Amino acid sequence: MRLYSLSVLYKGDPKVHLLKAAYDVSTFNFFQRASVQEFMTFTSQLIVERSELGSRASVKEQEYLCHVYVRNDGLAGVVIADNEYPQRVCFTLLDKVLDEFSRQVSKMDWPSGSPATISYAALDGYLSKYQVRRLRT
Fold first, then answer.
1. What is residue 30's DSSP assignment?
2. N or C of the chain: less Cβ packing under 10 Å?
3. How many distinct structural domains can be found in the chain?
4. pLDDT in tens, 4-26
5. Which intervals hold domain Longin (predicted)?
6. For residue 97, is it within any domain?
7. What is the pTM for the complete model shown?
8. Which domain holds residue 114?
9. 40 located within any domain
10. Could you tell me if residue 111 is inside a domain?
């Protein structure tokens, strides 16, 4: 069971943009990592774009499951995981991250924010904390 990506986006008018993201592409070949990360960013934006405000969904994309939560205020989160990762845990993580993000980052910064301008450092920690490490036997 593995998490690959955790993203916070803003569903504005007319388009969706990435505010902050964390990736774990360590299981991929070194030469594939940049393109895998780009794919995950693009997929996250596309799924949020196609989702309604106030909705939650799980979408299968290739061998991944993308869990999306778009709040009524336009703040959205996407977790990309493998097929084995529990859906309930993904949505609990998204609730926690979006609540914390909305408390720490001013709503006025969401429409114009980008990963370079938004100051929110907790995503890498959450991605690491929620990884399920397999025990070797």
1. G
2. C
3. 1
4. 999 999 998 788 999 999 999 98
5. 8-127
6. yes
7. 0.92
8. 3-126
9. yes
10. yes
